[in-house]
Specification:
Elements lengths: L4 H32 L7 H12 L17 H6 L1 H10 L22 H12 L27 E4 L4 E3 L6 E8 L6 E9 L6 E9 L3 H5 L8 E2 L24 H5 L10 H12 L1 E5 L14 E3 L4 E8 L6 E3 L2 E6 L9 E5 L10 E2 L6 E8 L4 E10 L3 E9 L5 E7 L9 E10 L4 E8 L16 E2 L9 E9 L5 H20 L2 H8 L10 E2 L10 H6 L6 E2 L1 H4 L1 H9 L6
Helix pairs in contact: 1-4, 2-5, 4-5
């Protein structure tokens, strides 16, 4: 219940204040109305319904994430004081970006005029007006926000989520089996265990590897998330790649002098960075990509959903459905994702001491060619407070692409710009993320506070801001991809060069989530004699302390020296 309680506290506090102040605000409102000549109050039919249908009903309707429907005058008037509270506090509608004169296509915020109108209507007793003039509620197709899908695929098997216990991380396969390549304009998830799904990220698997691992432990799916441990072969090496030098992690074991990636590794990284299909967070709305932009879905691919469950207090069963919306033709330009810091802040050395109210993580990325920014979104956990992404052009002009001053883990989203933001070559993207690990932070999962480091658990932290981009000239896209790849690999190299960080990286291969590496989970070069040297307690596994010895062994024996 950790992720629900802070939100409830915000609402309760706002409702309490509202009931204390509502009579006073009504008197003030009446006084102002009398002063200007008995202006007629707003009505639901003429004034409120268009706002509600445009900003609220998309979530607040049957089978969606809103806890109640807001489709009729009765729906709204019965909850008028609760609605007043969440509007007053800014908790609803959920919209976090600060306005910097860049228009977002999917903006859900209420204007000052709309807020004033809704509060005046509540003060007046929620008059309905002429019911015959009320516009018809919006029509939604069988629970899908974006209308009738081109294809709906179902998660392979059912997964049982316990009522309580630690957060669960599991990946699930959606068999697609398309006979031809497709291009995806939008995806929309319909989970069955709505109250337990914290977030999900969608990836393509073109190898069939996920299908083979699916259900191996007797339950639907694959334990763990492993996005650092099995990133399309780009980082983790397995038996099929180790003969040819393995993945990047295998190459990096040779030290910085051998850390440059070859053509094969470059291809793996590009595939890993390009194979995302978006994600799902409760409250975030799916959207079509603008123009002719679309994401590749190669024939024969499966979709893998990496899911973070937060037990809700009751047993639940997950067997989600995923709607796919296809483009009619391939896009004229290919999307390139830029993440700063890369890898969700894995290389940023996030290590936040207890009591620290202003812990900052920053990163920078230089755009090598003229680029269009299509959208932006951030990711962090509970104690993040602020995010800011700024573009500094070569002529000194500064543009704030994203600013969130009150980050909330429950309201993550991807924000699409109404029009692409043009950035010239040489523009430097600066990200800054601020964390508050003090006892005064009501979102802090630990009381009293304790050290919080980078990790996948919701009580750990991450931090990154991701840009959706295209090269203005499609012929220059390889240069943009090259820069992104370099940023990505340098993150791994820098992280690898830190002794304790190596153990943390290798722990991403912990597929069964027991906090230790089995020999079957370890990369090939950690098997056999090396595994035995590290396994000091002879329990057949490697814990973090034992993995920390790997740097010591590497320094002792050298990367190219035979033992």
């Amino acid at each position: 219940m950790n992720r629900i309680c802070p939100a409830i506290r915000k609402i309760v506090a706002s409702i309490f204040a509202t009931f204390l102040l509502a009579p006073l605000s009504w008197v003030i409102g009446q006084t102002e109305t009398n002063a200007v000549g008995h202006q007629s109050p707003p009505t639901f039919s003429a004034d409120i319904a268009p706002i509600v249908y445009g900003k609220c009903s998309i979530c607040h309707r049957p089978d969606q994430v809103g806890p109640f429907s807001l489709l009729t005058h009765g729906d709204f008037s019965r909850r008028a004081q609760t609605i007043r509270a969440v509007i007053d506090s800014g908790y609803m509608p959920p919209w976090k970006p600060v306005n910097h004169n860049l228009e977002f296509a999917n903006e859900r915020s209420l204007s000052a005029e709309q807020k004033q109108k809704m509060l005046a209507w509540i003060d007046a007793g929620c008059p309905e007006g002429n019911a015959q003039e009320t516009p018809a509620p919006p029509e939604f197709t069988a629970g899908w926000t974006l209308g009738t899908p081109d294809l709906v695929v179902k998660m392979n098997g059912q997964f049982q989520i316990p009522a309580d216990g630690p957060d669960l991380y599991r990946s699930f396969v959606f068999p697609v089996d398309l006979p031809e390549d497709k291009w995806v304009k939008a995806v929309e998830l319909r989970p069955k265990a709505k109250s337990a799904v914290h977030h999900a990220i969608f990836f393509l698997d073109t190898s069939g590897h996920a299908r083979k691992k699916d259900g191996a432990d007797g339950q639907a799916g694959i334990p763990g998330m492993g996005f650092l441990g099995d990133f399309g072969g780009a980082i983790a090496d397995d038996n099929s790649t180790s003969r040819n030098g393995g993945g990047l992690l295998d190459r990096f074991r040779g030290g910085p002098a051998r850390a440059s990636a070859g053509d094969e590794d470059n291809s793996r990284i590009d595939n890993a960075l390009a194979r995302g299909l978006g994600g799902y967070v409760p409250g975030a709305m799916p959207n079509f990509l603008p123009g002719d932009l679309a994401m590749a879905l190669p024939r024969g691919s499966d979709i893998v959903m990496q899911t973070h469950f937060h037990p809700s207090g009751k047993p639940e069963t997950e067997q989600a459905e995923l709607a796919l919306y296809f483009a009619d033709r391939p896009p004229s330009k290919q999307l390139v994702m830029i993440q700063v810091p890369a890898m969700f802040g894995f290389g940023a050395n996030i290590n936040i001491p207890p009591g620290e109210k202003n812990y900052r993580v920053s990163d920078a990325f230089t755009i090598p060619v003229d680029t269009q920014i299509i959208g932006v979104g951030g990711h962090a956990h509970y104690i993040c407070r602020e995010m800011k992404l700024t573009a500094e052009s070569p002529d000194g002009q500064s543009t704030i692409l994203l600013q969130i001053d009150d980050w909330d883990l429950d309201w993550q989203d991807r924000y699409l710009f109404a029009e692409p933001v043009e950035l010239p070559a040489g523009t430097v993207i600066h990200s800054e993320i601020v964390y508050d690990n003090s006892a005064e932070n009501p979102e802090n999962p630990y009381q009293p506070p304790q050290t919080i480091r980078w990790g996948r658990e919701s009580k750990d932290e991450m931090g990154s801001i991701t840009l959706m981009t295209v090269a203005s000239n499609e012929k220059e896209r390889p240069q943009l991809q090259n820069a992104v790849r370099k940023h990505f690999t340098e993150t791994i190299v820098n992280r690898f060069s830190q002794g304790p960080a190596l153990a943390q990286m290798l722990m991403q291969l912990d597929q069964n989530g027991d906090g230790k590496l089995q020999e079957s989970e370890a990369p090939p070069r950690l098997s056999g004699r090396v595994f035995g040297l590290l396994d000091q307690d002879r329990d057949g596994t490697l814990d973090k302390a034992e993995l920390d010895r790997l740097m010591e062994l590497r320094d002792r024996f050298g990367s190219g020296r035979k033992e």
